[in-house]
């Protein structure tokens, strides 16, 4: 069992609340309301900006060139790949770059992203990568599972681009290397007495992912 599996096994309810959330189930069934998906897309744009900052923090927190390069690869994957795909996906859903720029962060976006940034600022690189793990590795698990469940019907599925992106080879490889790097870091920096604190961090990040889905199902009115 690698450290990622150990973290999941220590937080089964939090993990299930995230990867089996109603938003995910309804996206897979194709019954997710389009408005909920648009709300999610806008908040995810703002989320990705903050997550790029978290990877920049990981570069700063790195103590070896290998750790700094791994963090730089994560930063580049967001800024140069995921963000571009995301902006194109938003355009196909009627959201222009101006719409995205004008949007403001919802409470759930602030809560999750600043929680991760704080975990990294207050802790070391392992704390930061544990807080990031549900994000990067969880989406690969969700994308792969949905693509398997939908099968050939994916070609005409309403959410095919999103599912295809996270089930696709490029994202799957990114998640595999993030998982390997987390294992390497843990082998160097994790003592058994530290594990319960890391498991708490992982569980909280997983719950905040679940809240992020929920936020799109229950958008607040104007204020
Ligand atoms: C909220 C959230 N979590 C994870 C991912 C995948 N990087 C994302 N785009 N958005």
Automatic annotation (TrEMBL):
Q: Name one GO cellular component term.
A: cytosol
Q: In which pathway does it act?
A: Cofactor biosynthesis; thiamine diphosphate biosynthesis
Q: So what family is this one in?
A: Belongs to the TenA family.
- GO terms under biological process: thiamine biosynthetic process; thiamine diphosphate biosynthetic process
Protein function: Catalyzes an amino-pyrimidine hydrolysis reaction at the C5' of the pyrimidine moiety of thiamine compounds, a reaction that is part of a thiamine salvage pathway.
Originating species: Enterovirga rhinocerotis
Is the keyword Transmembrane helix assigned to this protein? no
What is the protein's name according to its record?
Aminopyrimidine aminohydrolase
Q: Which InterPro entries match?
A: Haem_Oase-like_multi-hlx, Thiaminase-2/PQQC, Thiaminase_II, Thiamine_Salvage_TenA
Can you name one GO molecular function term for this protein?
Answer: thiaminase activity
Superkingdom: Bacteria
Query: Is the Hydrolase keyword given for this protein?
Result: yes
Catalytic activity annotation: 4-amino-5-aminomethyl-2-methylpyrimidine + H2O = 4-amino-5-hydroxymethyl-2-methylpyrimidine + NH4(+); thiamine + H2O = 5-(2-hydroxyethyl)-4-methylthiazole + 4-amino-5-hydroxymethyl-2-methylpyrimidine + H(+)
EC number of the protein? 3.5.99.2
- Domain Thiaminase-2/PQQC, by residue range, is 13-218
Could you tell me the keywords of this UniProt record? Hydrolase, Thiamine biosynthesis
């Amino acid at each position: 069992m690698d450290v990622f599996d150990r973290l999941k096994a220590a937080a089964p309810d939090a993990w299930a609340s995230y990867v089996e959330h109603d938003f995910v189930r309804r996206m897979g069934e194709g019954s997710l309301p389009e408005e909920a998906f648009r709300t999610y897309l806008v908040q995810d744009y703002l989320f990705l900006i903050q997550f790029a900052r978290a990877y920049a923090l990981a570069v700063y927190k790195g103590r070896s060139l290998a750790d700094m390069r791994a963090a730089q690869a994560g930063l580049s994957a967001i800024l140069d790949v995921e963000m571009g795909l995301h902006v194109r996906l938003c355009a196909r859903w009627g959201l222009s770059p101006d719409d995205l720029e004008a949007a403001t962060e919802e409470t759930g976006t602030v809560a999750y992203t600043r929680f991760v940034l704080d975990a990294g600022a207050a802790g070391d690189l392992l704390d930061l990568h544990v807080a990031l793990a549900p994000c990067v590795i969880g989406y690969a698990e969700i994308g792969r599972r949905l693509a398997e469940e939908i099968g050939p019907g994916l070609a005409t599925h309403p959410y095919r681009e999103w599912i295809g992106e996270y089930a696709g080879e490029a994202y799957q490889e990114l998640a595999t290397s993030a998982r390997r790097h987390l294992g390497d870091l843990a082998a160097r920096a994790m003592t058994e007495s530290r594990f319960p604190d890391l498991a708490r961090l992982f569980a909280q990040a997983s719950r905040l992912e679940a809240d992020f889905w929920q936020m799109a199902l229950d958008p607040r009115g104007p204020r």
